[in-house]
Write a structure and sequence with these properties.
- It contains 13 helices and 7 strands.
- The protein is mainly α.
- The protein has 3 domains: about 40-190, Orthogonal Bundle (Lysozyme), CATH 1.10.530.10; about 210-260, LysM domain (Membrane-bound Lytic Murein Transglycosylase D, Chain A, Roll), CATH 3.10.350.10; about 270-315, Roll (Membrane-bound Lytic Murein Transglycosylase D, Chain A).
- The chain has a 3-stranded antiparallel beta sheet, with no helix packed on it.
- Strand 3 (about 210-215) and strand 4 form a beta hairpin.
- Helix 3 (about 40-60) crosses helix 4 and helix 7 packs antiparallel against helix 8.
- The chain is globular.
Length: about 325
């Protein structure tokens, strides 16, 4: 009894310390999911159809998309994949307006994009590659040339890991992901009716294709189009397309005009533009996916004024004088 009494102060202090730790958890600890981790085989089985759909839309080998997702998300088990559905480590960047997930990476408290579904992450990854000029040579390769894509991603600076190519090829060949690049895989995929509009447009189809500038989707207007008809076609609110394209809600798109299906950016897709005869500030803002008000601000021009042919406009930086 005397021995127990002698240790009571120590036991009291230990209990108090444990209580304080449980009441005030430090920020550096993040609870991990208790579920069993996915195996590489399970990851492939879950996401292979999404990878094939992205290949049909953008021409990126399904094997490459799957291998990158497996490598960068630890087969879907990383905290970024579990809590943010982000399988490719895409960061927010200044144009991201969606939800975000903060975690330490190269520096402390970096902002990563958060998606509602994994498919959104896959689609954003495809647009990321398609919209950047430095990856353009990759899209000249065949969609089943996974070796060329693996080498090209490293050569174009996608990753700094000196073994990035080898690691991708190891994942692809170990899991036979190249099977999903073959035409037989495309033929065997039976998309649901509500997903067929996302497939690559056939030459005989009247469905127009969705294109991208700076990761922003747009279509080309045709004769007879109206913003209300396009809103119905692409399941948008009647107010959305006029706002995204910075026009009055009663206006009509001109045939051949780019019509954005989402908001334009604060910066253009290129650094500069030399004005040609007949161009306006609005037409330039549409061509380079930059909001009109920011195009005026970057060039210190009065809203409503127009540039002269030969004038150089800043699309990303700011004119100094």
């Amino acid at each position: 009894m005397r021995l127990l009494s002698a240790h009571r102060p120590f036991l009291f202090r230990l209990s108090l310390a444990l209580l304080l730790l449980s009441a005030f958890p430090t920020r550096s600890f993040r609870a991990q999911p208790s579920e069993r981790k996915l195996s590489p085989r399970e990851y492939v089985e879950i996401h292979k159809d999404d990878a094939v759909k992205e290949m049909q839309m953008f021409g990126i080998p399904a094997s490459i998309t799957l291998a990158q997702g497996m490598l960068e998300s630890d087969n879907g088990n990383s905290d970024l994949a579990v809590y943010a559905n982000n399988h490719f480590g895409i960061k927010c960047h200044e144009d991201w307006t969606g939800p975000s997930f903060v975690k330490d990476d190269d520096t402390k408290d970096e902002c990563f994009r958060k998606y509602k579904t994994v498919l959104e992450s896959y689609s954003d990854h495809s647009r990321f590659l398609k919209s950047r000029n430095r990856y353009a040579p990759l899209f000249e390769l065949k969609s089943n040339d996974y070796k060329g894509w693996a080498r090209g991603l490293k050569e174009t600076g996608y990753a700094t890991d000196p073994r990035y190519t080898e690691r991708l090829l190891e994942i692809i060949e170990k899991n036979k992901l190249y099977d999903y690049d073959q035409e037989v895989a495309l033929a065997s995929l039976q998309p649901k009716p509500d997903l067929t509009e996302n497939l690559k447009v056939k030459p005989s189809s009247t469905k127009r294709s969705i294109q991208y500038i700076s990761e922003r989707p747009f279509i080309i207007a045709r004769k007879g189009d109206s913003f209300s008809s396009l809103a119905k076609e692409y399941e948008k609110g009647t107010w959305e397309l006029p706002r995204y394209n910075e026009v009055d809600k009663h206006s009509t798109p001109v045939p051949g005009q780019k019509v954005y299906l989402g908001p334009k950016r604060r910066r253009g897709s290129e650094a500069f533009h030399t004005v040609k005869s007949g161009e306006t500030m609005y037409s330039i803002s549409q061509d380079y996916c930059i909001k009109l008000k920011f195009l005026y601000r970057r060039n210190k021009l009065t809203p409503g004024s127009e540039p002269h042919p030969g004038e150089v406009l800043y699309l990303r930086g700011k004119k100094k004088h």
